[in-house]
Specification:
Blueprint: E1 7-10, H1 20-34, H2 40-58, H3 62-76, H4 83-97, H5 107-114, E2 119-125, H6 128-138, E3 146-150, H7 155-164, E4 172-176, H8 179-188, E5 192-195, E6 217-219, H9 226-232
Parallel strand pairs: 1-2, 1-4, 2-3, 4-5, 5-6
Helix pairs in contact: 1-4, 2-3, 3-4
């Protein structure tokens, strides 16, 4: 199939701009705050369990993380955490939401090169207001014909997007850093996936078994490699 026939969709967080590094810096401060109560491993394990328990209610993003962090701090300190530290946790959450959008290397140039000749989509999950803010601040919105912000990235979500935009799965290529959210659901629907790993991966996005070798699955080190891959298809 000629590359011009592909509709190319990009993930946002940790594919177009840095995200997990922001969470990791906040995790470091969180561990320090609770270090007089518990070791780092206990803090991390308990926070993650709380996040997973709350995920269906809060969804993904900074706001849900902040609420889970406060709940975990109360639990791990048996309610002894002072109001000043609860306020500090709220401040950390606000700092994350206000953090500048920092593009990954090669993103701006690659999208500028692809958008004149290809139909590009942006598909990201998380808090609607926060994701809209990041898209606006990124300066990338004009490169995309459609922007989809969803609560979950799974087979039903991708299938709905493909139906909505009348895209045949065989014409669809998804580019992202998460095998679990960006690649496996698309492969299951008959589309193609290009995995570009990020140096940090949230535990919830990790999988034990990568996709098997397949003509529709690709892996590259940088978004700069996308044009060459399309030319080779």
């Amino acid at each position: 199939m000629p590359s011009r026939e592909f509709v190319i969709a990009f993930d946002a967080d940790d594919t177009l701009w840095h995200n997990e590094t922001i969470f990791e810096r906040t995790h470091e401060r969180y561990r320090e705050m609770l270090s007089r109560y518990h070791d780092a491993a206990t803090v991390d394990r308990t926070l993650f369990a709380t996040e997973m328990r709350n995920l269906e209610l809060y969804g993904y993003g900074v706001k849900g993380f902040t609420l889970s962090a406060i709940e975990t701090a109360i639990d791990l300190t048996a309610g002894k955490i002072p109001p000043s530290e609860i306020r500090r946790l709220l401040e950390l959450g606000r700092d994350m939401l206000a953090h500048p959008v920092e593009l990954l290397d090669g993103v701006a140039e690659t999208l500028a090169a692809l958008s004149p000749a290809h139909a590009l989509l942006l598909i990201t999950k998380g808090d609607l207001r926060d994701q809209e803010r990041k898209v606006a601040k990124s300066g990338l919105a004009d490169h995309f014909r459609h922007i989809e912000i969803v609560s979950e990235k799974n087979e039903p979500a991708y299938a709905a997007i493909l139906r909505r935009h009348a895209i045949a799965p065989a014409r669809f290529l998804m580019v992202g850093n998460s095998l679990k959210s960006d690649i496996l659901p698309v492969l299951a629907l008959g589309g193609a996936g290009l995995h570009i790993p990020y140096h940090l991966t949230w535990a919830h996005e990790r999988i034990d078994t990568p996709p098997p070798p397949d003509a529709r699955f690709y892996e590259r080190k940088s978004i700069r490699d996308v044009p060459a891959l399309l030319a080779a298809l």
